[in-house]
Amino acid sequence: MTEQIDLQPVKGVRDFYPEDQRVKTWLFSLWRDVARRFGYEEFDACVLEHEELYVRKAGDEITGQLYGFADKSDRRLALRPELTPSLARMVMARGSALPLPARWFAIPQCFRYENVQRGRKREHYQWNMDVIGLASVAAEAELMAAQALFLREAGLGTSPEKADVVFRVSNRQVLQGVLARLGITGDRFAQTCVIIDKRDKIGPEAMASELFKLGIGDDATKRISEVMAVSGHGAEGLAAISAVVGKDNPGLVQLGELLEYAEPFGLGHLLRFDLSVIRGLSYYTGTVWEVFDSSGAMPRAIAGGGRYDALIETLGGKPTPMAGFGMGDVVIIDILREKSLLPPLRRQVDDVVYPMSAKEIPVANKVARFLRKQGRVVVVDYSLRRFKHVVERAETVEGASMLYVLGGNEVASGKATVKPLGQEGAKEYPVPLASLGAG
Ligand code: HAM
């Protein structure tokens, strides 16, 4: 006897049975619809990318989680862990032929070799919206407005009275301004961000010792901790930041503008300025933000984004301002399911056509063909099982609203028997086969 194959998918990745796929399709269509309403155009790239695109000097965690390999021609490739570098590559390849600003969105599947836990898998789909070629924080405000519209349409509260989500917002230039005074600039600053983003995972001592290796001593580490402890909602948050870093800090100035642009979108109350938000990707240069479930029940971010004006330059291209976000499918579906906010997504069949014996299969196919031409979703039940079974399956498995019964009597009299399903007391009635394309 041959041994049975492993029935589980690869660790950390998912199978999508039709009922799971329905949820995914629902989510993707809402993502697409929101992006479309903001005038963003969909693009895509291949899941296979050049590995070098993800190798960064700052030691980003994502680089250590790469599914990287050599192909048969010894090219170093990787399954993309995120889409942003592919977007940058595509923008660079178009060069000046691309009219800017451009607004693009995508829903890529991404792969990261993660520790599998709640909200973290080794594969996920990620809704990305990015603005290319706009230096103003108006871009970030617009991106946040799109996220908020999606969250609201998915059923989460975004009003001041009932805010189920919070946007935790910072700007890397706040800390950059502070650290520049201490002589920490350029690559060293990007490396510092990657280290301090890991602080919850590695603890304050390991953080201090990693910073020390970068030549950042106790005084600077203390100053970093002091800055990172500042947070607050709206104007109050800005005042608290100003008290610690000074009102001329360029990051603070941008946060002030962001709040001004976000208010008219009805977003102001959702923004919590929080300088502990750093984000683990080293390419961010300005605004960084993460969207969280405000109850704190889900510790993982629903979405994360930021401004990354230097990414193209680090890949050898011309400086190009860019900002965007990624929202994964795993965390949001988890939250919506927990709050019973997922819509009932049933199998959507309109009609079942039932040939009672093999003789009636040709006429059943004719009727099905006619109904499909009308745009109806039609399943022909070829099982030849008894009427009772067919009705039950049509109602419960297919969720159909009409059953077209075609037996010997129906064909002989030239009339199908049509039975409305799922309607209490609805009577069956005859319909001429000629009017169903089977005369
Ligand atoms: P990120 O914060 O690494 O950003 O990922 C964005 C979102 O993707 C997360 O907030 C989470 O919802 C989801 N996500 C990430 N990793 C996993 C995982 N292992 N399992 C489940 N969900 C996950 C980026 O990737 C940036 N490229 C986003 C961006 C676009 N920035 C600018 N433009």
Summary of the model, kept short:
The protein is α+β, with helices and mostly antiparallel strands and 439 residues long. The protein has helices at residues 18-37, 61-64, 84-94, 138-153, 172-181, 186-197, 199-213, 218-228, 234-245, 250-262, 311-314, 329-338, 361-373, 387-396, 408-413; strands at residues 41-42, 48-50, 67-70, 76-79, 102-106, 109-111, 123-132, 165-171, 231-233, 271-274, 287-293, 303-307, 322-328, 351-355, 378-380, 402-406, 415-420, 429-432.
Label this structure with key terms.
439 residues; alpha+beta; BirA Bifunctional Protein, domain 2; Rossmann fold; five-stranded mixed beta sheet; 15 helices; 18 strands; 38% helix; binds histidyl-adenosine monophosphate
Computed Rg: 28 Å
CATH-defined topology of the largest domain: BirA Bifunctional Protein, domain 2
Largest sheet: 10 strands, mixed
What is the name of the CATH architecture of the largest domain? 2-Layer Sandwich
Oligomer: single chain
CATH class of the largest domain, please?
A: Alpha Beta
Ligand catalogue: histidyl-adenosine monophosphate
Mean pLDDT: 95
Number of helices: 15
CATH superfamily of the largest domain: Bira Bifunctional Protein, Domain 2
Question: What percentage of residues falls in helices of 4 or more residues?
Answer: 25-40%
Shape: elongated
**Sheet/helix structural class:** alpha+beta
Low-confidence runs: none
What share of residues are in beta strands?
A: 15-25%
| Count of separate structural domains | 2
